[in-house]
Amino acid sequence: MSKPTLKSVAKALGVSTATISNAFNRPDQLSVALREKILSACTELGYDGPNKAAQSLRKGSSGIVAVILSDSLEYMVSDPVASQFLQGVARELERQQKHLLLFSGNSTNLDTITDFVDGFICYGAPRNLGLIGQLRQCKKRVLTVDFDLPGRPSVNIDNEQAAYDSAVAVLKPDDVVAVLGLRLIDALDSRPVADAPMWDNLSSVSHRRLDGYQRAMGELGLTLADDALWHIPESNQHFAEVAAKAVLSQSPRPTVLLCMSDLIALSAMRVALQLGLQIPEQLRVVGFDGIEETLRYHPTLSSVWQFSDKKGEAAARAFQSGLDDNQLLPYELRLGESS
Amino acid sequence: MSKPTLKSVAKALGVSTATISNAFNRPDQLSVALREKILSACTELGYDGPNKAAQSLRKGSSGIVAVILSDSLEYMVSDPVASQFLQGVARELERQQKHLLLFSGNSTNLDTITDFVDGFICYGAPRNLGLIGQLRQCKKRVLTVDFDLPGRPSVNIDNEQAAYDSAVAVLKPDDVVAVLGLRLIDALDSRPVADAPMWDNLSSVSHRRLDGYQRAMGELGLTLADDALWHIPESNQHFAEVAAKAVLSQSPRPTVLLCMSDLIALSAMRVALQLGLQIPEQLRVVGFDGIEETLRYHPTLSSVWQFSDKKGEAAARAFQSGLDDNQLLPYELRLGESS
DNA sequence: ACTACCAACTTAATGCATTAAGATATATGA
DNA sequence: TCATATATCTTAATGCATTAAGTTGGTAGT
Predict the structure, then answer these.
(1) How far apart are alpha carbons A155 and A329 in whole angstroms?
(2) CA distance to partner chain B, nearest, from residue A213 (Å)
């Protein structure tokens, strides 16, 4: 005997398919007695509700939400900030009884899943820029986080202001400043930005932060040397150390490092300590993100805390709400021993 | 004008729907000329291939694979071992052009997604035991990792032997042994197992490891005191520290700690050092799993490395292969400064 | 010239369910 | 008692595509 369907159950009970469907979806459309009879007959027959794939085809919604990560899943799951975000999304989605589908930002084709999902939460601009065009045209709901798409709802923090605040808190009038930036240009290794063209699409967050740093520096009359603005392709130990070593061996040696992620800042501090530098006496460091790990190391890191898990929850809630506004979440500047 | 469908495209071109379908799915069924005409007409019309939801309904497969985690997504994403595993799965799935849906082991109902996916990769027995029954009866492909379901393919390591090996490597004839076990009984806090009933379903891995420890101890004539076998509900710092503190203040004080995860072992070492104990002189510690973090701390941890990312890849490959065997993956005992 | 076969399409059944609109019967109110 | 409203169920159109089986025209072989 094959798997029972709505139709076969209906026939077995001598009622119409509409009634069975209503028994599951609109209890007010039939008598209580019949409904109970149907429901118990269903368990009897091993029918556990309408087929979700058919339902999804008919209703046009599945209860599955895709989260598009900026990079490969691989990288994302190992990044503390991204996985915090994912935790938040997961928590809220569980509350909503929805399902989470992970989608890599390296993928080329959105429409391998578009039909399956209720929409997309995009965490950071996808590495494959082709996806952006597809997202723009997508008929389904699209919500962006940490970047913007015209006409689409978004969840962000005020990166410019946050970066400004962090710089103001750490800078002094006579400082030599270096910036360890994240994904500023289109290069796969750590290197000074110099005159390479800025990578507009992928890095709006980074550029805002840079603007903030520069506003703060401007107010103090400080300028950023050409070779003191570095591009780091991925927020990890290796790439950060390369940049930190280079920057800290320049002369005049920087007295302040403005870092666009905590992981970068942490690595930079390690390098500095290895070079025998005193923190914060000879070098002050400020990070960005706010991750638990910075609390376990000494000196503890001054940083902008942006509570990625809350951001994830907010994103999932905003996705569900149907509202199309651009949300700005609060952040918090927390000073540690590094400044 | 509404979204184009296979039917509307067919009408526009004056051919049958079967032909359009074949143009996408079975190119050998129509002439090259017509196919190209159709394909270009499709881009013209903004039709980007057959609707996946309908396709899934018809074909009965979607290209989506669900990974059922043992706990909440929240916990899983933050656990280094689980996220390593997830990375591996994601990597292999990307290769196969399949999609990854994350499913919490706390969920009550499998059939909210069964119809959407091609099957399930279960990473550890789900915390909600009700799911196990549902998985047993599930018509779709089910592959288990780190536990077994009768008649289903699985991916494991030989936990008993691995635990045995690790214990043999660290134990000496006059040792006082304590075991910090993971999820041995049904309790939400850290506590001695004592005479609580073992939690069979959820902890097969842990029980195998315990068997391995005990075999090794038996060969050396060592026994495990009643209050020296501890249950830890979750592999995290807090629960591990509670157990470690308790065990290390017993007398006679243990000279060896057999820990069922590296996170537990790491926390235990921290506690030991705080108590002023010398490692490995006064206390030897061995862990389980193999995570990068243990290489950054001193003393470095002796542990069983099980390469969770490879396990993830193997699981995704085995899922795809259709083979129904029970795979045993290699592990590696790596000795560090802790023993 | 006739059969056989192939290439290239089409027909129509099928997968599983939702839902607006229609049909009955029973109850309500004046 | 008659018209109207309500509760309860059914009919049938619809969502979008896959695929086995059928049709047609043409080529090849003898």
Answers:
(1) 7
(2) 31
Q: Does any strand D atom come closer than 7 Å to the Cβ of B50?
A: yes
Cα dihedral: B141, B146, B148, B153 (round 10): 40
Judge whether residue B196 contacts strand D, using its CB and a 7 Å cut-off: no
Q: Chain B residue with minimal CA distance to A117?
A: B53
CA nearest to A56, candidates B114, B243, B254, B75: B114
Whether any strand C atom is under 7 angstroms from the Cβ of B58: the reply reads yes
Q: Give me the architecture of the B159-306+330-334 domain, per CATH.
A: 3-Layer(aba) Sandwich (3.40)
Q: Which strand C nucleotides have any atom less than 7 A from protein CB atoms? A: 7-12, 14-21
Residue A78 has pLDDT above 80, yes or no: no
Asked whether the predicted pLDDT for residue A202 surpasses 60, the reply is no
The CATH number fitting domain A159-306+329-334, selected from 3.40.50.2300, 3.90.740.10, 3.30.390.50, 1.10.3210.10: 3.40.50.2300
The reported pLDDT for the residue numbered A200 is 66
Identify the pLDDT of residue A203: 56
* Arithmetic mean of pLDDT over chain A: 93
Confidence of residue A292 (pLDDT cuts 50, 70, 90): confident
Residue B203: per-residue pLDDT: 56
Contact B116 A116 (CB under 8 A): yes
Query: What is the pLDDT at residue B339?
Result: 87
B225 in Cβ contact with B146 (< 8 Å): no
Question: Are the Cβ atoms of A83 and B86 closer than 8 angstroms?
Answer: no
Which residue is closest to B76 within chain A, CA to CA? Answer: A87
Cα–Cα distances in Å, from A18 out to A10, A21, A50, A55, A310? Answer: 9, 5, 12, 13, 42
Q: What is the CATH number of domain B64-156?
A: 3.40.50.2300
Is the pTM higher than 0.85? yes
- pLDDT < 70 regions, chain B: 1, 200-203
Q: For the packed helices B237-248 and B262-274, what is the interaxial angle rounded to 10 degrees?
A: 50
**A193 close to A185: Cβ distance less than 8 angstroms:** yes
Residue B52 with chain A: CB contacts under 8 Å: 111-116
Q: One-letter amino acid identity for A52?
A: K
Task: Say how far apart CA A125 and CA A122 lie, in whole Å.
Answer: 7
The pLDDT assigned to B202 comes to 52
Q: Which CATH superfamily hosts domain B6-50? A: lambda repressor-like DNA-binding domains (1.10.260.40)
Q: At what angle do helices A17-25 and A6-13 cross, to 10 degrees?
A: 110
